[in-house]
């Protein structure tokens, strides 16, 4: 018998993760009267936002939507986003009585007894009738591999551990990646670095003008189509293009955002291209994005041959007990809010005619 199965606590729903998607789901589950427990591996409220670099102020945040039932008002745009959103999430948990258990690392979700799922963690185990997985992507930074990468004598780091621009003073920096984070890093590093170089696999696409509801729906549809086909999701932001704001325009005019094609290899002192060009560097900053943090779901064998989990709405096609929120088309903050409500509706139908007597009261 699995050692975790002994003494496992029965509950209707386990929510894994207490970021935007997890808190939204917990809010809707509580309103529906469905017993649940929220497990979060972070040390404090704030989801992945608590780990963002200090120079990412709230005014620079790309599209932050309020959690259901409580607006975020009066935030200082010059205050670090990690502080603003961390405090907001903490207040939200307090207002709605969402007693998140933390820090708890969920290590595996597997088939349990009696048609239930067994959730194994650093704080014990839960036997659950349904699972809401809201683990996001922050814990799985993507590091591409290039020939000679191990030879580079300088520093290599990822957006996930980006410390802010102050540590790059006087350095020659190569920033890799074509997303919003890469652009933000470049614009602030260029003010203190000796030299910056921007490289991307594809030419960046800048979006001029507004981004309304119709454009948002079209972008989400592109991501949703991949998920339906069982392919790893792309981010919603990744298919919308880069917003052409005043700071970006200035960076384009000054040459800071002059993009070079991706290098072919690294050397001890920098990067090289097949045509013989070279750039010396002290630091390579990989702003190359993240992947879904879903390895703990591996025992359930939910992945399709294409590498992703096929999802309809939020429900995993291979197991109706499992819902993925903040995954694929619901990875934006507004998408996460809607996904929490959608998952709750499906779970209510799954649990009908009602919760079992042992789980009528939410587990705290």
Structure commentary:
- The protein has 364 residues and is α/β, with parallel strands linked by helices.
- It is built from six helices and 18 strands.
- Helix 3 links the parallel strand 7 and strand 8.
- Helix 1 packs parallel to helix 6.
- It is globular.
- The C terminus is likely disordered.
Tell me what portion of residues adopts beta-strand conformation: 15-25%
Succession of helices and strands: EHEHEEEEEHEEHEHEEEEEEEEH
Low-confidence stretches: 355-364
Oligomer: single chain
What structural category do the secondary elements indicate?
alpha/beta
- Shape label: globular
**How many helices?**
6
Calculate the mean pLDDT score and round it: 89
How many angstroms does the end-to-end distance come to? 27 Å
Helix content: 10-25%
Question: How large, in whole angstroms, is the Cα Rg?
Answer: 22 Å
Largest sheet: 8 strands, mixed
Short key terms for the protein model shown above:
single chain; about 375 residues; alpha/beta; 5-stranded parallel sheet; globular; disordered C terminus
What would you say about this model in short?
This protein has 364 residues and is of the alpha/beta class. Helices cover 22% and strands 21% of the residues. The radius of gyration is 22 Å and the shape is globular.
Write the layout of secondary structure elements.
Layout: E1 9-16, H1 20-31, E2 36-39, H2 81-95, E3 106-111, E4 117-121, E5 124-133, E6 155-158, E7 172-176, H3 180-189, E8 195-200, E9 206-207, H4 213-228, E10 242-243, H5 246-254, E11 259-261, E12 265-266, E13 270-272, E14 278-280, E15 283-286, E16 311-312, E17 315-316, E18 319-324, H6 333-351
Parallel strand pairs: 1-2, 1-5, 5-18, 6-15, 7-8, 7-15, 8-11, 9-10
Antiparallel strand pairs: 3-4, 4-5, 12-13, 13-14, 16-17, 17-18
């Amino acid at each position: 018998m699995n050692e975790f199965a002994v003494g496992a606590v029965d509950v209707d729903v386990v929510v894994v993760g207490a970021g935007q998607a997890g808190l939204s789901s917990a809010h809707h589950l509580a309103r529906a009267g469905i017993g649940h427990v929220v497990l979060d591996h972070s040390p404090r409220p704030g989801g992945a936002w608590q780990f963002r670099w200090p120079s990412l102020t709230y005014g620079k945040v790309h599209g932050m939507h309020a959690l259901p039932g409580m607006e975020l008002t009066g935030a200082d745009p010059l205050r670090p986003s990690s502080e603003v959103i961390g405090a907001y999430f903490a207040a939200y948990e307090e207002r709605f009585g969402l007693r998140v258990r933390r820090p708890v690392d969920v290590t595996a979700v597997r088939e349990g007894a009696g048609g239930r799922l067994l959730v194994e963690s650093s704080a014990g185990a839960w036997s659950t009738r349904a699972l809401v997985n809201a683990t996001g992507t922050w814990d799985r930074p993507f590091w591409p591999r290039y020939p000679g990468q191990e030879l580079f004598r300088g520093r290599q780091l990822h957006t996930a551990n980006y410390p802010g621009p102050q540590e790059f003073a006087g350095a020659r920096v190569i920033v890799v990646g074509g997303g919003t984070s890469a652009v933000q890093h470049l614009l602030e590093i260029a003010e203190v670095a000796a030299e910056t170089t921007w490289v991307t696999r594809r030419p960046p696409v800048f979006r001029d003008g507004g981004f309304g509801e119709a454009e948002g729906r079209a972008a989400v549809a592109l991501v949703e189509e991949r998920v339906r086909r069982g392919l790893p999701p792309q981010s919603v932001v990744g298919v919308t293009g880069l917003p052409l704001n005043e700071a970006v325009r200035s960076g384009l005019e000054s040459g800071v955002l002059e993009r070079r094609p991706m290098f072919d290899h690294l050397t001890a002192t920098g990067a090289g291209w097949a045509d013989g060009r070279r750039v010396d560097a002290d630091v390579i900053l990989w702003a190359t994005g993240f992947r879904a943090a879903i390895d703990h779901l591996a025992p359930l064998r939910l992945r399709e041959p294409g590498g992703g989990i096929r999802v309809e709405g939020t429900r995993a096609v291979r197991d109706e007990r499992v819902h993925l929120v903040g995954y694929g088309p619901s990875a934006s903050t507004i998408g996460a809010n809607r996904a929490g409500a959608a998952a709750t509706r499906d779970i209510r139908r799954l649990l009908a005619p009602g919760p079992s007597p042992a789980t009528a009261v939410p587990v705290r």
